[in-house]
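User: Hi! Is it possible to get a structure for several chains at once, not just one? Here's what I have:
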Amino acid sequence: MLTERRAAILGMVVNEYISTAEPVSSRAIVARHHLDISTATIRNELARLEEDGYITQPYTSAGRVPSDMGYRTFVEMLMSEEPVEAQEQRTIEHQLHQVMGGLDEWLSLSATILAGSVGNAAVVTRPRAASSRIRHAQLVELNHDTALLVAVMDDGRVRQRMLPLQSPTSQAQLTDRAVRLNVRIEGADARIARAVAAELPDPDEAATARAIADLIDEQRIAEETFLDGLNAVLKQPEFLDTDRMLEAVATLQAYRVRRVLEQAIDAQIGSTQVVIGREHGDDSMQEWSMVISRYGDEDAIGTVAVIGPTRMAYHRTIPRVRYVARLMSHLLHEVRQA
Amino acid sequence: MLTERRAAILGMVVNEYISTAEPVSSRAIVARHHLDISTATIRNELARLEEDGYITQPYTSAGRVPSDMGYRTFVEMLMSEEPVEAQEQRTIEHQLHQVMGGLDEWLSLSATILAGSVGNAAVVTRPRAASSRIRHAQLVELNHDTALLVAVMDDGRVRQRMLPLQSPTSQAQLTDRAVRLNVRIEGADARIARAVAAELPDPDEAATARAIADLIDEQRIAEETFLDGLNAVLKQPEFLDTDRMLEAVATLQAYRVRRVLEQAIDAQIGSTQVVIGREHGDDSMQEWSMVISRYGDEDAIGTVAVIGPTRMAYHRTIPRVRYVARLMSHLLHEVRQA
DNA sequence: AGTTAGCACTCTCGACTGGAGAGTGCTAAT
DNA sequence: ATTAGCACTCTCCAGTCGAGAGTGCTAACT
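Assistant: Yes, the chains can be modeled jointly so their relative placement is included. Here is the combined structure:
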């Protein structure tokens, strides 16, 4: 049973370990919090906490280190979130409004800002439309047997693909074809676009419509990720031997991270999910935690996440991830409102 | 004076050091090449080479390590390039033809392939048009006071930017405006686009033309880089303490690399440039070498480069960089031919 | 002249050792 | 239930030592 006092002590252990990265001793706890109980009492409680699996010792007679379960309890019951100060909010919003370039730049910048704010790596994925629709298509002549198909999607993103031409076609003819197609296909999702393609008598037009349908599908699936803050993570004391550092670089650049993001796909927008150490299925993620949040709306959903060692400042990270996710929902909304 | 024998010995030292990463001893040289002269003779020659600055000793009575000048001499006079085997060429071309996505995917994939092929990090930059021209512009309604301006450039790339509208404008009106503008502006570079803007009576149309001119400029300047192979470099023995590893990560992610690429801007297309250690102006690049090649044609030029420790397999890297650059020139040509 | 055997000398590197110090668990008293 | 006291464990660091690798120099040899 986790008595109130034991819970309090667990909280102190986690807090202390998060800030010092050193196993926490009974003496450190008493000294730091000016407690009126003795170190021996603390030691008894620590023994119980260890028995119950909340903390472990790296070796006999060293201080205590939180286990995954310890962190989990901390996150769910013990921690008090550190709000994002108005000052910091202004800084972040300001940086984010600097760039009026395009979606990708926003996303990349968001990852950078978030990573900087929490001192760990951050990942942002492109919003993926639940059901993507096309807003507008255009055909541009590239050479005598190829055209470029450019499609603007309803979330403001642009996709392109080369389109082989059966017969030489002038730019004027291409523009004409695009105009005709737009009338029929505007606002269509992939399924409707295919249906339209099937009805079109002209084979070239039909091929174009099918290509558009493909683009819509790709749009729905392609989930590019923007990662930043590698340097920041690698400076954490958990990686101060080379093997671990190499492993860390490999882990962060691998697909695994993406897979975890996909696992969290059922999370609610607005809510923030925390995955700690072994809670990832993946062995190579044992020593990592992720704080994940979704952004967007019913139609298009992306992911913001922070990745770092399990010894992570959850009480700072969680509100910051949530804040950035909310900000990005707003940004996305600004672009998408038709 | 660099006698013939001394040059040969220098070559052996460099080769040996490149493959073992250990200071090269007189005995190792004799043993490896079954020479008919004694280690003492080699030692005398090594002493002369050191006197002349081609090699150094990490500490008294250790083996010899090439200096920057030693590598330079090796690259220019001693090395024999290892050609890219037909088999490897096929593999690379095959991988590169897998993706028919878009320019960016090609570039990113090229960096990955090159990095894998030489076991070091690789950087590829987007081709930058010497003078960029627009091929086609399109306006798409986003909401009542914003439109999306989409411009297809003559190298097939697409740039976009949001365009504030003075007064509510329908999609039909926007399309109409785009058609009118295209007539005047197709094939224009930034300067011409500005001239057209100045002549247009309608303020909205003029604003659009100016925005197009800005996009053309951005296109010319924006030089996005694709980096891959971080893991590969970090596995090199020169980084097996954490400080150096961290430094390496920082160096590779910093702008410095980009600056060096810009320095090499006057290089001929087709030629390959090697910058070794202190030859970079930058102190933080002391221990790095780059093999740089340009690709493209008179109109649009990009850069391919490999970055690694000065102890780099130049004889393998140089032909591979050259080969990939040539390949990318072809690819670019395929897209650009109008 | 250039080459080479022989040898003393230098420097690194890994293994080993021996406290010092931090921290615990246990026992017995409060 | 709490606590003082103490023996015990384990890490970490600094110092030491010897083995080994490699050189430079000298003197003899071709």
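Chain A has three domains: 4-78, 86-126+223-336, 134-221. The interface with chain B takes residues 100-102, 135-136, 138, 140, 142-143, 148, 150, 152, 156, 158, 160-162, 171, 175, 179, 230-231, 234-235, 239-242, 245-246, 249-250, 253, 335, 337-338 of chain A (CB under 8 Å).

User: Great, thank you!
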